[in-house]
Amino acid sequence: MRAHLEQMMSQVRRMASDVTTVQKKMMRVTATVRSADGLVTATVGPRGHLIDLELDPKIYRRPNSGLLAQTIVDTVRQAVEQAANEVQDLLEATVPEDFHPDRLNEVFGLPKGAMRQHDSVILKAREDEDDA
What we know:
Blueprint: H1 2-27, E1 31-34, E2 40-44, E3 50-55, H2 65-92, H3 101-108, H4 119-131
Antiparallel strand pairs: 1-2, 2-3
């Protein structure tokens, strides 16, 4: 028990010394994804917030607002997942295993991988649970 505690304290000390470097790396994370049809490009930051959205003018050749809206949501979701995975990788390389987000998700009763998922995916899963 004591050895495990000492090991965890050593990991916490190492993590504390790396915090500034990791924070800077995390805050530089961006993800840019282009939709399959190439008409929508979304860029998100480290917390999954939309930074930039580019719409190719060709979208006006086939006006379909429903399809465009779904393409934007899907493209942003993919960018969020990509950014979240990059942030997760930075965290996993730095923090002790007991503090990994998936482990914390278990503690708080969140679905596994919740920190890597777009809100629309989490909300849909909750709606499906409520309907069941």
